[in-house]
Structure formats: structure tokens, C-alpha cells
Amino acid sequence: MLLLLFVLFVLPGALGAVATAQSGSTATGGVSQIDGLSWMKIRDSSGVPVSNYLFTSNHGGPTNPGATVVWAFIGVEFTGYIAIVTTAIWMTGYALSFRWLDAFASALQGVADALTGQVATPLMLATGASIGAFFVGWFVVRGYHAKAATQIVTMLGVAIIGPLFLVNPLDDVLSSNGLLTKGRDLGISVAAGLNGSDHPDPRRLVTTMQENLADNFARRPLQVWNFGHVVDQQPGCRSAWSAGVMSGNEGAVKHGMRRCGDVAALAKADNPTLGQASTGLMLLICSGILLVFAAYLGIKVVRTALDAIYHWFMSIFGFAASGFVYGPSQTFLVRNVVDVFIAAGRMAAFTSFLGVYLLFLGNLFAQAGGQVMAVIVIAGVVEIVAITQLRHLSRSLRNGNDWIANRFALAAQGKRPAADSVGGAALGSGAGHPAGAINGAMTGLAALSTINSSPIAAWLAAGTLNPLNPLARGRKVVDMANIGMAPDRLEREGWAGMSRANWRLMALMRAEGAGGIDAELGVANALDGLGHARVPDSSLAGALVASGANHQMTNDALRALSIERASMSTNPFGFGPLQRAVASARAVENHVGERNHMAFAAQAVVSANRFERHTNAPAAGAIIDHDFVRTVRQNWDSEVALRSAITPDQWNSVGRDTRWFIGSELAKEQKAAAQAYYDRPVEANRQRLMASTARIANLDHVEPGAGPDPWDP
């Protein structure tokens, strides 16, 4: 009754409290539903904060615990979905707003000014100009007048542009009118034009992008999830839903749906189902993909800006001195300057890409009408494709950057590019074209790999396969050793096969005289024969199964043998076969009533047979002291009485044949008792077996001072 009361009343209330705590919802107006997201200030096109969104449903109660459980699960899903979508939309707008760059601007400006003061000194300028003038003189002496003129023009350009740049090094990157901002604004203008706006305002357009994302990925999917359709299709319901959400009261949302006449939405809200929970899981997956896309785009934008700042920093060294020196140092300056301008182009390209992407998604949602869930799934696929396309776009821009930098460097060095589109390579720039360099390197590696795998190369390297591999010599030694040992291994495998055949024959022969391989006694005898053949323990089960025993009987026999070995006495003065017979018989006593009891009885028979076989018998016609034998028989059922009646001296004085007579009699009795119990496992036979076991245990002297026992030689 207590458990029933807990399930019907306490558990539903606890789950409802958890769901309420997950979303931080309240019943009062004007309170943010998810306070941890309100600082992002993401709103939809109706001005409703996304952090205020509500999932209106029946929370259940003591009379409806099923609705409480469903609401608890949906509440957790709703909180996670809104958190992910809001974060993704905020990341997209924050990356394009460049507010994050303001946090670095003052610190980076100070670092750039300090670096300029240390590097851009008159001595450094004079040193760089002197080295550059040396190259001019060298070209004139060698007759390269065109190169000398180009070097002079390059030095003059660096001398004129350098002071203007060094006055405020990072101003063209970090300022509000810098290259990065202009590239961002150009991309936003393109995006605005694609969306039908003739007068784009970057700040306003970023907000508009966020509002469209909020409508398409938060507001409409939530309405379909909550009410089964988009309630915004009716202007009255749109206003009613917005007002109810702004109030922070689920009752106000339901009242608004009732007032605007959307009976279907009200019925859906009052009856939560597991289908809504499944819809929430699908929305969580799609929102996760949206978050990945937003994070990837944000990383690309931030990295582009930081790359531009880095190259602008490197340009300080170029304008201070290295730009005057012919060769790789001039190429270094050219590459850094080109990279900064290309970064602005990248910023424009990434922003335009986002605009085209949002235009496509907006048209998808506009054409879909109320089929929002289908578009959400399609949008997830589009976002995955967009990440791949954005990677390709970034790679193409990087390759174009290298090509442009190489062309400028060639012009600065007075070299004439080739007639084709690839051209040559400037000093210090590596290959003239990234694809050409990669193709050339791959061609060389392919040729080298072909030579390495050729049999001719192996013969020339003294029989070493793939001689260029790092471990080729060691591999040759290992291969030669394996080749030399192959005949021995083949012979050993042949012997192993013959041994396995012999094991199977041994098992079948031992099992035939004990009921066959299908009986417990037959399996126990086969196992004993395999032990005599010195078969490894790891191969015992395989040999038995290969001989025809089933797996269950094999496992039972192995268990009985294992218990006998583990429980037998290890006293070195005791008689080994006797100790095994005692251990197996006591295992029968300890496993009465178990399913595999007959396996223990069979093992007791095998051990008793071995005990009887290894017990010495008196010679024919030997003189037996029957009075001594009678005394032993009268006291052998009690260990204490036996020690009191017969002293160690008496055991020493009696003849060996008399002692062997007693031992052989008891061994035969043990064998007969074990066989009788296996044939008829009844209580009387078990008592007989245990009485015989106690007698042989009493007569087994396990210490030298007790005198010889019936089994001593």
C-alpha cells in the first residue's frame, strides 16, 4: 500500500517539480522562463524574447500521473531545445557583430605601439636600406638592369608606405572603418540585397538575421510541437500567443487560444502524449546540428580576424627593415600584406555565405507553410552540407591567397611569370601553386614507392624486400629465420595432429568399458585416460567433445575432477590414490541433490578403481596374522579407538603381507561401494560409501611416528 501511494501521489509530484525546475517556469507574469539565457537578448520578429517561451501543457497530478510523467520528460526536452537554439542564434549574431573584437582592440593597440617603438628605429631602417642597396648594385654589375630598377621601386614603395603604416599599425584592422569591418559590411550588403533590402544597416541586419532564425528554429517549431500546427497562421492567435508568453503564464496562453478560436491547439495542450516527447527528441537533434553550424561559422569568422591581426603584426617587421631586402624577406612582407586584404575578402565571403544560407532556409519555411517539422529535418541536412561547403570555400580562398601573394612577390623580385596560369615560385614563397606543389610531391613519392617495391631493387639490396622501409633489414632477418624453421614447424604440427588423434582414441577406449561416451562414468573414465596421456588441461574439454561427449557432461566431469584436486590432502606421507579416493567420495557427499551429482559419483568410481589398482596385495600363500587383522577390523570405524588398540610398535612388528591384506580388502570395499552408489544412488549405498571412506582415511597414517599403514611398501 505504501508503494502504491508513492507511485500514485509522491512520484508524479516529484517529477513535476523536476520539470518545473529544469525550465525555471513560474506562474507569474513578466518573469523570464529561462533566466540563464535572458542575457543573450534573442527575440523573434514579434519582439518576444526566446528565453520567455513556454511549453503549455497539462501537468497532470495525483489523478493523472501519466500526464505528469510525460510532462516531466517534455519539460527537460523543452529546456534543452530552447537553450541550444538560443545559444546557436546568439553565436551567429555575436560573431558577425564584431563586439568580441572590441575586447581585444585596446590591448592589441598597446602591444603594437610598443613593438613598433622597439623595432622601427632609424638604425634598423638604415641597415635594411643598406642591404637593399647592395642588391641594387649587384644587379647593375651583373647587367640585370630591370631587376635593379624593380628593386629600387620596391624600396621606395616600402619607404613611403612604411611610415604611414607604422604610425598606427593596427588601425586598418581594428578600427570601425578597418578592412575587416568593411569586409563584413560588404558581405552583409550582399546578404541584404539577396533578401530584398536596398539600404542595409549592418547592425540592424544582424538583428534581423537573429529574428528570422528565432522564428524559423524556435517559435514555429515550438508551436507545432506544442499545438500540432503553427498558430501564427491566424493573426489573432499570433497576438494571443505572444501576449501569453510575455506574461509568463501558461493559463494566459490557453486562454488566448480559446479566445482566438483555435480549439485544436487547446485540445493538444490539455492532452500531452508520448508522440510529443518523440517530436522533442527530433528537435533536440536538429537544434544540435544548428549549434554545430553556428559554432563552425563563428570560429571561421573569429579565426579570419585573428589571422589578419597576426599578419598585420608581422608586417611591422617588414616595413621596419625586411621589406628593403631582396628575396624571401620581401616575400614575407608581401605575403603578410596580401593576407590582411584577403582576410577582408574572406570576411565578406563568409558573411555572404551566411546570407545566402539564411535566404534559402527562409524560403524553405515560407514555402512549407505549416509543415515546419519536415523543413526542420531538411534544414538539418542542409546545415551539414553547409559546413562541408564552407570548408571548401575557406580552402579555395586560402589557395587564392597563396597564388596572389606569389604573383606580387614575383613582380617585386623582377621575375616574369610564365605564360600559363600557374607561373613560377617567388623566393621564399615555396611552390608557385599549392596544387602543383602537392601534385609534384605526390608524383615523386609514387615513383619512390614503385622503386622500393620493385624486385630488382630487392635483388640489388642483397635480397631485402622494400629496402627503403625503416625496418627492412630486421624484417629480412626475421623472414630468413622463419624460412629456416618452417620444416620443423610443419613437422611439429604433424605430430600435434597425430597426438590429437591419439587422445580421441584413448578417450573412446576408456569410455567403452564404462557405459560409453554418453554416460557420466564413461566421460569420467575418458577424462582419466586423457590425464594418463598427459594431455594439457587447456585441451581436455576439446578432446572430450571431439570424442563425442556433449558440452554439459564435459563441463560436469571437469568440475568434479577440479574439486577432487582442490580438496584432496597434500600430506607427503599419505598414500596419493587413497587421498584422491577420499576427496572424490566426500565431494559426492557435499553435492547431494545437485543437477550434476552423478558426475561426482562417476569421479568417485574412477578414483576408487585407481585406488584399488595401485594397492599392493599379499603374495599367494603368505602367512597372515589374522588376530591382528581381527583387531583392526574391530576398531577401524573409529580413529581414536584404532590408535588406542594398536600402537606404532605393533604396526612395525606385524608383517608386510598382513598389512597389505588389510589394505587390499579395504580398497576392494571402496571400489564396490563407489560402484554400487553410482549404479543405485540411494541413501543406503551412500552411507556404505561414506563408511568405507572413513575406514581408509582412519588407516592412512599421515605422520611417520604412527608406524607403517596398510599401503606402505
Structure in a nutshell:
The protein is built from 27 helices and no strands. With 713 residues, the chain is mainly alpha-helical.
Q: How is the secondary structure organized here?
A:
Elements lengths: L1 H22 L41 H33 L1 H21 L2 H21 L2 H23 L3 H4 L4 H16 L7 H26 L7 H13 L2 H11 L2 H8 L3 H47 L7 H41 L3 H41 L21 H19 L2 H6 L11 H41 L7 H13 L4 H10 L4 H17 L8 H15 L6 H17 L12 H10 L3 H7 L2 H6 L2 H24 L3 H17 L14
Helix pairs in contact: 1-2, 2-8, 2-12, 3-12, 4-5, 7-13, 8-12, 8-13, 9-10, 12-13, 12-14, 13-14, 17-18, 18-20, 18-22, 19-20, 20-21, 20-22, 21-22, 21-27, 22-26, 23-24, 23-26, 26-27
User: Unreliable runs, pLDDT <50, ≥5 residues?
Assistant: 4-32, 418-423, 426-437
3D shape:
elongated
| Mean pLDDT metric | 76
In helices, the fraction of residues equals over 70%
Q: Which radius of gyration do the C-alpha atoms yield?
A: 47 Å
* Tally of discrete structural domains: 3
Task: State the separation between the terminal residues, measured CA to CA.
Answer: 75 Å
Helix count, DSSP H or I runs of 4 or more residues: 27
Strand content: under 5%
Taken in chain order, the helices and strands follow as HHHHHHHHHHHHHHHHHHHHHHHHHHH
Count the E strands. Answer: 0
Q: Helix- and strand-based class? A: mainly alpha
Biggest pleated sheet: none
List keywords for this structure.
mainly alpha, 3 domains, 27 helices, Four Helix Bundle (Hemerythrin (Met), subunit A), single chain
